[in-house]
Amino acid sequence: GENVEQHPSTLSVQEGDSAVIKCTYSDSASNYFPWYKQELGKRPQLIIDIRSNVGEKKDQRIAVTLNKTAKHFSLHITETQPEDSAVYFCAGARGGGSNYKLTFGKGTLLTVNP
Amino acid sequence: EAQVTQNPRYLITVTGKKLTVTCSQNMNHEYMSWYRQDPGLGLRQIYYSMNVEVTDKGDVPEGYKVSRKEKRNFPLILESPSPNQTSLYFCASSPQGVGTEAFFGQGTRLTVV
Known about the structure:
Chain A has about 110 residues and is mainly beta. Chain A has strands at about 5, 10-15, 20-25, 30-40, 45-50, 55-60, 60-65, 70-75, 85-90, 105, 110-114.
């Protein structure tokens, strides 16, 4: 089955700096890679996702890049703000048809210091 | 309001006493799943359901059962809970399979003593 590794496990940055979280996956057939943000005591929420036919996707201060050859994808947050502090999870899955088996990384605790 | 609702939010129980955590969604989503979240281990999928009467094992199904008799409900059953099932549980639903956003419930914190 799929195995998703996520690094680093904790990341501390100054407000305004950029933050990068990296993930690798094992199943070369995986084609869907979402990122979820979980604030303290709350539920995970989707912030951005990318499919294997796309190399990069941006949404305001957030971007995700995918390297299919190397089987890794990364989350980039620019101009970080204190409200970006949360745990971020990457995930991978072999999408299509009725498949719904999503494998998550172990999470990255991001702290943005004012 | 579109939502996924889990009950109870908090539960303390004793080893061996059967319990059910309910999950209901009002978005007419086909797919539902259960995850457990443990410190340092992230979110691990327990079971998922692609449609009514169709369920399948995730990565950590041992000790759990599920059913999907109606589209909106997907209860998680622990027939004989053990302390290693102490965890934070999340139910999620999505419109279709992989490739569509998963909407999570508020979570259920379960303690088995």
